[in-house]
Amino acid sequence: MRLSDIMKGISYKGNVADCEVTDLTSDSRKVTDGVIFVCIKGIKSDGHDFASTAASNGAAAIVCDRDLGLANQMIVGSTREAFAVMCENFMGNPLDRLKLIGVTGTNGKTSTTFITKQVLDRSGHKCGLIGTIQNMIGDEVLHTEFTTPDTYELHSLFARMAEAGCDFVVMEVSSHALEQGRVAGLHFAAACFTNLTEDHLDFHGTMESYFGAKAKLFGMTDCAIINIDDEWGNRLRIGDGVELITYGIDNPLADVRAENVKFYADGVGFTLCVSGKQFPVKVPTPGKFSAYNALSAAGCAIAAGASPESVAEALNRSTGVKGRAEVFPTGRDFTIILDYAHTPDGVENILSSMRAVSEGRLVALLGCGGDRDPYKRPLMGEAAARLSDFVIVTSDNPRTEDPESIIRQILPGVEKHDTPYTVIVNRREAMKYAVEHAQPGDVIVMAGKGHEDYQIIGKVKVHFDEREVLREIFEGLDME
Q1: Which ranges of 274-393 would DSSP assign to H, the alpha helix?
Q2: What CA–CA distance (Å, rounded) separates 27 from 263?
Q3: Which phi and psi angles does 3 have, rounded to 5°?
Q4: Counting Cβ atoms within 10 Å, is residue 422 exposed (0-12), middle (13-18) or buried (19+)?
Q5: Cβ neighbours around 156 below 10 Å, total
Q6: pTM value?
Q7: How big is the CA angle at 420 (ends 411 and 369), to the nearest 5 degrees?
Q8: DSSP H or E segment with residue 463
Q9: What is the sign, positive or negative, of the torsion defined by CA atoms of 338, 294, 343, 333?
Q10: Phi first, then psi: what are they for 266, rounded to 5°?
Q11: What is the architecture of the domain spanning 3-90?
């Protein structure tokens, strides 16, 4: 592709001769002859510092936001915004053929995107999905590393989805992606705000900054779907000309509402109220938060043009999401729930939901990730002790932190209550302990890993799928 075609729609200063371009990148290590290098300032490094090296390696052009004294530089107002447009042009403008639905919030993003995709698929659309667990093109599953990919990979996915005939893309939009400009230049047909609770303060610093990052999405959309039961959702302000769809359970003024909510061990039932009509709905994941996820997905699907009738029908046929209140089949007289809860609110949600349906003890097994927000650790411990009958404190992904040090930061929260607890640093051994000491009617919630099939210990990612571990534990018990 020609340089002039890639730079179409971008204002810049510089007199670089038009030429054939083989690729573009923001990683100077990937620059060879014919590749455009875009200088992006990141958290730890600034691409501008590597521009001269990229030029000497044969870069077709250097796109920067200030004068670097290079012969082939092209100075733009924002390299992040320029990079997004360049990627879109280079990939053949796939966004001309796609409508984007973005979902942001602390909890519920993954479930909302999965359910929205299921609803739209059943309404006759072909959807792409981008998120934490996996990316999807129709029914094809693709591996993913990040909730929201970097700009180049994101537009590559858009191109593959458009080529495959998708008309909608439902995607999780993280606060990191919004703050770092990974979704710069995108415009969404609809954007959903699920909730905001404490998380990622190691990155954002304060809840106000965290909220501010999330709020950026609503300056990039035609329609906003907002949870008005959430205090931060009520604070969200949208611009003139943006359609607003509200949803909730407690607020009777919500446009999309759940009434007569009933909790079951295998799901939650409610009456879906929308556009003056009522529909009975049951989704296969237990808990009040699951009702919220269904409502947010309903709002997204309605914004995309689905009828309330088709939304209700699709919700009733929806399936669960891996690692989100997932029931592991024990074949015994107790229940094990696998859940991704890794925030205080997430722990509270899953335990409150299971408390409502547990016949015996409610047992919480959890840890906290290393090299991440340390402020939430005692809060997660406190929620676990307050809502369960027994707590097993263990490791999650310790990364480069000492696992025992992380646990010591969880325990002050646990010890605010008289709930009995034990500490077992090795997660496999903690899971074995939970199974061996289970009593009839118990519900054991294993929080934190959810869909993940690994542990990160030090800088090494070790295979660790809780489903496999549990099968091995039960097989061992059967052999004894």
Answers
A1: 288-303, 308-316, 344-355, 376-387
A2: 50
A3: -55, -40
A4: middle
A5: 16
A6: 0.81
A7: 35
A8: strand 460-463
A9: negative
A10: -110, 15
A11: 3-Layer(aba) Sandwich (3.40)
Nearest to 143 by CA among 472, 461, 431: 461
Q: Which CATH class is domain 94-316?
A: alpha beta
Q: Which two tokens stand for residue 45?
A: 């490094």
CA angle 92, 215, 41 (to 5 degrees): 60
Sign of CA dihedral 451, 453, 455, 459: negative
The closest of 368, 369, 337, 361 to 350, measured between CA atoms, is 337
Cβ contact 59:27 at 8 Å: no
Beta strands in 165-255 (DSSP E): 168-172, 190-193, 223-227, 243-248
Write out the E strands in 133-234.
135-137, 140-142, 168-172, 190-193, 223-227
Sequential pLDDT tens for the chain (480 residues): 999 999 999 999 998 999 999 999 999 999 999 999 999 988 788 999 999 999 999 999 999 999 999 999 999 999 999 999 999 999 999 999 999 999 999 888 999 999 999 999 998 999 999 988 889 999 999 987 776 778 999 999 999 999 999 999 999 998 888 888 788 889 999 999 999 986 666 666 788 888 988 999 999 999 999 999 999 999 998 888 999 999 999 999 999 999 999 988 778 999 999 999 999 999 988 888 899 999 999 999 999 999 999 999 999 999 878 888 888 989 899 999 999 999 998 899 899 989 888 889 999 999 999 999 899 999 999 999 999 999 999 999 999 999 999 999 999 999 999 999 999 999 999 999 999 999 999 999 999 999 899 999 999 999 999 999 999 999 988 776
**Alpha-carbon gap, residue 56 to 33, rounded angstroms:** 9
Q: Which amino acid is at 19?
A: C
Q: How far apart are the first and last CA of the chain?
A: 66
Closest residue by Cα to residue 103 from 262, 275, 321, 389: 321
Domain 326-479 in CATH 3.40.630.10? The answer is no
Look at residue 454 and give its three-state secondary structure: strand
Domain coordinates in residue numbering, the chain: 3-90, 94-316, 326-479
Spatial contact of 137 and 69, defined as CB atoms under 8 Å apart: no
Measured from the Cβ of residue 448, the count of other Cβ atoms closer than 10 Å reads 27
DSSP at 58: T
**Closest by alpha carbon to 245, among 311, 289, 186?**
311
